Amino acid sequence: MLLRYRYRVYPTRPQRQALAQAFGCARVVFNDAVAARKHAHAEGLRYPTTAALSKALITDAKRTPERAWLGGVSAVVLQQALADADRAYRNFFASIKGKRAGTRIGPPRFKRRSNTQAIRFTRNARFKVLAGGRLRLPKIGDLKVAWSRELPSAPSSVTIIKAPTGRYYASFVVSVDDGAELLEPISDNDAETGIDLGLKSFAVLRGGKVIDSPKFFRKLERKLKKAQRELSRKQQGSSNRVKARIKVAKIHQNVKDTRFDWVNKQVYTLVSENQALYVEDLNVRGLSRGRAAKSVQDASFGMFLDRLESKAQRAGRTFAKVDRYFPSTRLCSTCGALTGPNGLEGLKVRQWACGCGAVHGRDENAEINIRREGQRMVAAGQSDT
Known about the structure:
By secondary structure, the chain is α+β, with helices and mostly antiparallel strands. The chain contains 10 helices and 14 strands.
């Protein structure tokens, strides 16, 4: 099993200049590869192979005056840029043939210089984590790393990322044994919960336990609007505009980091306290296009569900997704009748009474139904884990 471990790094000024050169060279090689394949397509020629592109765009190009500066960066960085272009084309072809899951994607486009940049080093580059904790990269130097935890094994690759805020990060890919993160099984039969996600409350769990919605973006929205107004008033190309742009980027980064931390903590708590977790298979993409799109995106249901499923699998917990069309809200958890609120008007109903005499809280009733349907799926062998 492969996992990513990400740490912040603090390059010196010369190292930042070397990284900027590497970012630019990788972008040029990627764009040259896309241009070569676009030309082959326009002329009706066979697509050039990665080996042919490597020789033409890297080996031979370094000997020309126009691309001699490619020799100033690690060859592995350039090879990885070619690999990224090749992977993008493979994904495109698989998508149009219907062999790739998800929505259809278009062909690769030329990369523009942006505020988010990245390069990748593999083992062939002979990068090394030194005994003192610094990260040695070829033609870059020894980078200072803020280690928050140890790597479980030797990394197979490292990606250096420059964020819009000007911060630098090192993202390591490491191999971990499948059973390395297994947790002790919980024998309590009640250590199972359904999870009903919503906008009023982020989630309702077994027994009516509620996880309040943090609304990270909403809390900083006014501050962000003010910073964006200040940015719009700065003159193009001025140093004050650069400062204003970084200020806006830092607010976005603050929202992102806080949300990531909160989601990871909630996932860890849920997986630690429950042997089985059952969720609804939400159409997050569809919800993100509706009237409540901003609130849905702020809640980050997709990130939460992906990380919960991944963590549950690694920890050895039972995890099941209930079909999105299962009427968890309308179904009476007492008698099984479909008497609950329905339609857009039904979203306003927080409590309802069934003809059998049972009175239900909307979210609490949905959690019970999701949990029961998840248990049925597990018994029938239809669960994900």
